[in-house]
Amino acid sequence: MLCGMSDLLAELDTWLDANWDPELTVAEWWQRLGTSGWAAPALPTNAYGKGVSRNEAIAVGQRIVKRGAVAAPGGLGMLLAAPTIAVHGTQEQIDEYVLPIVTGQQAWCQLFSEPGAGSDLAGLGCKAIKDGEEWIVNGQKVWTSGGQIADMGMLIARTNPDVPKHQGITWFACEMRQPGVEIRPLKEMTGRALFNEVFLSDARVRDDATIGGLHNGWAVANTTLIFERSGLGAGGHSAAAACSAGTIAGDLPKRVGDFARPSGPSGGGGGGGAMASGAVQLFTQMATENGMITDRSVRQDLVKLHTLHEVGRMLAMRLKAEKQAGRDIPGAPNISKLSMSEIMRQSRDLGLRLAGAGGMLHAYNSADRKALDEATGKPVLAFVTEMALFAQGPPIYGGTDQVQRNILGERALGLPKEPNEDRVKTWAQLPKNG
Description:
Blueprint: H1 5-19, H2 26-36, H3 54-66, H4 76-88, H5 91-102, E1 108-111, E2 127-131, E3 134-142, E4 152-158, E5 169-175, E6 181-186, E7 195-206, E8 210-211, H6 217-232, H7 272-276, H8 279-290, H9 296-324, H10 332-355, H11 366-376, H12 380-390, H13 401-412
Parallel strand pairs: 1-4
Antiparallel strand pairs: 2-3, 3-7, 4-5, 5-8, 6-7
Helix pairs in contact: 1-3, 4-5, 4-6, 6-10, 8-9, 8-10, 9-10, 10-12, 10-13
């Protein structure tokens, strides 16, 4: 057992001295990192991790980048699929699915939301029907982040329509590159297409790809959502690799040293937390350069943004202490998610204020972005405008702010649920969303 953070980082430094080699391919480097436990150290030891806390795992990720090495694979496989399978999967499933995630061999996406089942996720209608040793899946999913480069998908589908809606759902590991899976990008107002809609037409899933047991998908999905809200929320973020995991993106055979560069704000797409985490330093620099740092209200907004980040970080530290004592903080992931939504709104408003008229300019592809940077002489504007446009997303994805408040009211504060018949009528009997 390691004695503390310093011992953990010292062990990592020793390992990096012996193993980091910029001449390796991305695949070779991630193979070393993943099988050693350093790629996802928060995972348990039987799931290719080291069983450390989230804060310690974040420190490990930051140390890897600080040492000049390439960070561990990113994406929803690491954030959601691996920890969910580590909790609910068998050891055979952990070996089959988690190992390719931590070594970057497979990228994952999340097949949860549907056009008629977003906030009411348990009302989903995507159906899976048993056919021998397989399940035949038909339905539509939407807002699928990274679906265009995913090898695998976290699929929740209805396997029994004749029980209450929460009881007839199953969580599957679904192969995305198969006949019957069509992925269509959804272009957002940033100019990127991070999200997709996915159509499943007689797609097939193996029976042994059922994670957590038949019809137990709602419990498994809630585990995924807890990891999602914790990962997307305020409180610190691990460094992300500049290269992409999985076989579709095409980075695995490339020289890993070409991706080794310091982390920091960029105009690239990504989750709200990753985009906002460097905003305070960036905005302070902008305000200093344009003379607005002397404006008391600007300084107040900078301090407010810094405070929101610190409160989130301290919540994560408090949660770690409670976990170590065998306790929990009810609703902590939901509070963290709400905090990140507020950080994104504050970052949007302050960033555009500091950008001035330049904040009205935005480029929607790489060629135009280069031209805009040359015209303004301010490449940082691309980061500011993209974050401002993207800021509308975090209060919606991963569970809307309203859903988070409902969960806090019911599960943390003990307030009564709204009356409904979800628990007594079968899914087939309930009225369906549009």
